[in-house]
């Protein structure tokens, strides 16, 4: 084996030994803490709001030990994670109904041709090429309303909604 491989093998061995040693130290510490907790249970009296503002006091079980003070669980714990009542009332009072929206335009602008003062645009819809002018229909769904050098305006016929396709030309 090469020197680099021996070095990596040694580092691996040291890492494994350190991991084993750390787990043994943690296990010993946990066992002592468990014994201490079982041997000296902490008893607490119900706290008043005035007592909650004071600094932690020592317990009768052991002089010099600090008791950890925790506020009691709120009386309205069932509603703790719910939105405020005002927000709930607004949600109930004003149900929003989304108005139907036309689907996005399925066309891709390819180019335009001007013949006899009339502009005809070339649009791709999937694999199909459409050559259309103003006031012409594309199937039963769309009608071309206006063609300018920068955009094409359509009407989605089932909902009578206007949509615009940018051509990207100047």
Taking pLDDT < 50 over at least 5 consecutive residues as the criterion, the unreliable ranges are: none
Beta strand count: 7
Number of domains: 3
Identify the CATH architecture of the largest domain.
Roll
Please report the first level of CATH classification, the CATH class of the largest domain.
Answer: Mainly Beta
Structural class: alpha+beta
How can the largest sheet be summarized? 4 strands, antiparallel
Using the CA coordinates, give the radius of gyration.
Answer: 38 Å
**Number of discrete helical segments:** 3
Strand order of the largest sheet: 4-5-6-7
Portion in beta strands: 15-25%
Order of helices and strands: HHHEEEEEEE
Report a brief summary of the structure.
By secondary structure, the chain is an alpha+beta fold. Helix content is 29%, strand content 24%. The mean pLDDT is 79.
Explained architecture:
The structure is a single chain. The chain is an alpha+beta fold and 170 residues long. It has 3 domains: 1-39; 42-71, no CATH class; 108-166, SH3 type barrels. It contains 3 helices and 7 strands. A hairpin with a 3-residue loop joins strand 4 (137-138) and strand 5 (142-147). The mean pLDDT is 79.
């Amino acid at each position: 084996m090469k020197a680099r491989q021996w070095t990596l093998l040694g580092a691996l061995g040291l890492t494994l030994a350190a991991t084993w040693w750390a787990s043994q130290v943690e296990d010993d510490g946990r066992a002592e803490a468990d014994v201490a907790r079982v041997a000296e249970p902490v008893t607490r009296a119900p706290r008043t709001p005035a007592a909650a503002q004071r600094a932690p006091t020592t317990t009768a079980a052991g002089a010099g030990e600090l008791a950890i003070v925790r506020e009691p669980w709120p009386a309205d714990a069932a509603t703790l994670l719910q939105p405020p009542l005002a927000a709930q009332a607004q949600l109930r009072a004003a149900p929003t109904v989304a108005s139907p929206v036309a689907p996005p335009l399925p066309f891709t602008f390819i180019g335009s041709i001007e013949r006899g003062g009339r502009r005809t645009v070339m649009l791709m819809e999937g694999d199909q090429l459409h050559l259309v002018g103003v006031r012409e229909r594309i199937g039963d769904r769309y009608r071309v309303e206006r063609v300018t050098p920068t955009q094409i305006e359509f009407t989605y016929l089932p909902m009578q909604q206007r949509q615009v396709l940018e051509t990207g030309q100047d």
